[in-house]
Amino acid sequence: MKCPACSAETAETDVCGCGAILRPGRCRKCGGELKEGVRACSACGTLVMRSASSSWLLLGAVVLGFFVLALVLLRPTEEQAQVLPPTPPPQVPTAPAVNVPKPVETPKQRADSLFNAAMQASEAGESARASEVIPLALDAYQKIEGLDSDALFHVALLRAASGDQPEARATAERILAKSPDHLLALSVAARASDALGDQASARRYYERVVAVYPAESAKRIPEYVDHSRLLPVYRTEAERALGRK
User: Fold this and answer.
1) What sections of the chain are H helices per DSSP?
2) Pick from 15, 42, 54, 196: CA 20 to 30 A from residue 147's CA?
3) pLDDT by residue (tens digit) across 5-25?
4) What are the pLDDT digits (tens) for 195-212?
């Protein structure tokens, strides 16, 4: 069929590709008569292409349908193309925490710790602190059976630091009963005697310290090793008390 408007050959349809009507009809808007070859209603101006039911419109609808279908079919592919979140690193199992028991403090170790605290406070002039710790240290030593010479020496010093000079000398004598030349016990006994005003006893203890010092200080007994700094101090003190320094 040839279009009366553009002379183009067209298939069996109501409207040409140029927009002209190929068969007489009515305007869908005003109902006016549409003649062959017109592109718009002469009465209201409505385009024939928009008012007529043509195969071109059907073709457009088909194409649009295929387009929408393609979008629907492609959607899963787009979702699959999304970047997946990074895979977390594998969790390495951690070893369970092991509770390591603290070493148990022996009665002697506790008593010695209190002794050190008491002596440090006393030497630093912290009388309130010393008065607080000394009874605790003495009580700790009293709970130990069979005190050795080192522990008895500590007790003697604690007694002297608390002002109890008779007990300080009595404790030193307990050491001297087993070790007559014990330098630490002789020195504590000499100091206690001097504090008590017993100068004769103090002189005897000091003379013994000076006499036995060379041989006795060479011994490697535990209390001499632990209190090695006191040995030369006690010797100098004895020599001065005897007027030899």
Assistant:
1) 48-51, 55-80, 107-123, 127-142, 149-161, 165-176, 183-195, 199-216, 222-226, 230-241
2) 196
3) 677 776 666 777 676 666 777
4) 999 999 999 999 999 999
